[in-house]
Amino acid sequence: MPKTQAESPKKAAAAAKAEAPKNPAKKAAAAAVGVDAQTEVLAPKPEEKAKPEAKAKKAAAAKIIPLPESTEELLAHPEIKVSGAGSFEGKLPVEIGKLLIAGVAAEGVYDGALDVKSILENYVDGGKIEALKINAGKSLTWLKFYAGDTEVGYLFDGTKLSGMVSDGFISQ
I need a labelling partner for 123 at 20 to 30 A (CA). Which of 17, 30, 55, 140 fits? Predict the structure, then answer.
């Protein structure tokens, strides 16, 4: 009796099923009848395609780089990215002003009033502050300025003070 087209795919599927490996996707493909059905079963699902990318992003985000001991080393570090967020003189955005007040209060070296205007006039040289963004596996804000001839500043993780700069050296 001659083979019909309907019998050939069934026999092919049965032969593939007999040799199917233990992989569930391949077992499902072997059980599927026809090339289209097998291709559909073996095709990666959209969420499976995204998994390697998501894992890579998560691993990159999880790699937090410890800050070096000085601002010079921080700026030269090959894995830490520092970018300018803005330079301000005499007047600060509200968010930056709040961070400045929090840093000065925590440092405890300034005896004047804890308001932005007083701090800029009496503590910060020329009233100039540079706000920088640091990406070291997590995002930090660095308020950089000079008091006297000394580089000082504060590092914030959001609104939480996470480090201070004194004479160019970072303490955490």
Answer: 140
- CB contact at 8 A, 103 and 166: no
What is the spatial distance between Cα 148 and Cα 110, in angstroms, rounded to a whole number?
13
CA distance 10 to 5: 9
Q: Measured between alpha carbons, how far is 20 from 33 in angstroms, rounded to an integer? A: 14
Exposure class string for 99-123: b at 16+ Cβ within 10 A, else e: bbbbbbeebeebeeeeebeebbeeb
How many whole angstroms separate alpha carbon 151 and alpha carbon 112?
Answer: 20
Residue 156: strand, helix, or coil: strand
What's the structural domain count of the chain?
Answer: 2
Sign of CA dihedral 161, 96, 62, 69: negative
Q: Are residues 69 and 47 in the same domain?
A: no
Return the pLDDT at 16: 53
* pLDDT tens-digit map of 43-67: 665 555 556 666 556 555 558 899 9
Residue ending a domain, among 18, 36, 61, is: 61
User: Is the Cβ–Cβ distance between 151 and 168 less than 8 Å?
Assistant: yes
